[in-house]
Amino acid sequence: MKYKRKKVKKLMEDKQRAAEANNPQETGETQQTPETQEPELQEPELREAEAKPETVQAEAEPAAKQESKQDPKQEDSDTETPTQEEWAAALKKTVEERDSYKDSLLRSQAEFQNYKKRNASVRAEAYEDGVRETIFACLPAIDNLELALKHAESQGETGGVYEGVKMTLKQLTDSLGKLGLSEIPALGEQFDPELHNAVMRESGGEENVISEVFQKGYRVKDKIIRYAMVKVFSGEE
Hints:
The protein is an alpha+beta fold. It has a domain of about 55 residues: Nucleotide Exchange Factor Grpe, Chain A, domain 2 (Roll), CATH 2.30.22.10. The chain has 5 helices and 6 strands; from the N terminus they run αααααββββββ. Strand 4 and strand 5 form a beta hairpin. The radius of gyration is 58 Å and the shape is elongated. It starts with a helix and ends with a strand. The relative contact order is 0.06.
């Protein structure tokens, strides 16, 4: 309140100076009478004077707001609206980008499906290779058990040990059979180079008929893991 009174007082002084500048005669008279003092403002006049700056400020604020509202409209009017040709070019570019992204997505999906198929096939083949290698590693054990049984039979031993070895051999071959192991027929069969490996020839007999098997051959499912080592008849006397 004190600050406002000072401000009002200063406004009244400026107003009085302006009036004195317009009326030089009155100014001279006023200067000649130093005892003259500014009349004190009465309470109603003081309130009216204090209210004037606020009124001026209140009137200035709507004008500023109106100017600020008009600025965006003026800026919008300055921006250029795209032409129909520009819209068509932008639409064409967007459609081309869409088609490119769609084609890339379809290619990626197809490649991923092919990868899954190849991966499944490779995994299946790797599993089958592992099975065949494992069975192949067990074949010497089967050979030794069969030799032990053959030797026991030649010696006429048919006790508990013989039966135990025979049962062990049967259990081993049955277990491997579940994994696809099967013996390649050889003795008395016609020699087949895709199944048999002839290491000896014997005179007489029917030509190319297997007369003796030195080592059995085996296959796992449709793949041979060991050829049968055999002796064949030559057919000559």
